[in-house]
Amino acid sequence: MSIYVGNLSYEVTSDDLNEVFAEYGTVSRVQVPMDRETGRMRGFAFVEMASEAEEAAAIAALDGAEWMGRDLKVNKAKPREDNKRSSGGGGWGDKDRSSRRY
């Protein structure tokens, strides 16, 4: 299981998150997604802890807490869903070109 941490300051680092979540148990992994174009963090992260009990304690303590001037959104991460943009489907450019009239 993974914890979603949202509404983060753009100044937050994985070390910052590791330090805060370590108060509730052993942090196994911290993932801070970065924007491809700007190289800046995207305002959310994922934290994995050693046990579900530690994750539950961290969620209970940190959801809604103020940190670095922002109210955190902390909950269980939902499984990643494939969307049409990432799978290449959909969009006006994907139609069969042979049926178009110009």
Could you describe the 3D structure shown?
There is one protein chain. With 102 residues, this protein is α+β, with helices and mostly antiparallel strands. The chain has three helices and six strands, in the order E-H-E-E-H-E-E-E-H. It has a four-stranded antiparallel beta sheet with strand order 2-3-1-6, with helices on one face. Strands 4-5 form a two-stranded antiparallel ribbon. The radius of gyration is 19 Å and the shape is globular. The mean pLDDT is 86.
Sequence of secondary-structure elements: EHEEHEEEH
Query: Major beta sheet, specifics?
Result: 4 strands, antiparallel
Assembly type: single chain
Q: What distance lies between the first and last C-alpha atoms, to the nearest angstrom?
A: 52 Å
Helical residue percent band: 10-25%
| Mean pLDDT over all positions | 86
Tell me the number of helical segments per DSSP (H or I, 4 or more residues long): 3
Find the structural class using helix and strand composition: alpha+beta
Taking Cα atoms only, what radius of gyration do you get, to the nearest Å?
19 Å
Spatial sequence of strands, sheet with the most strands: 2-3-1-6
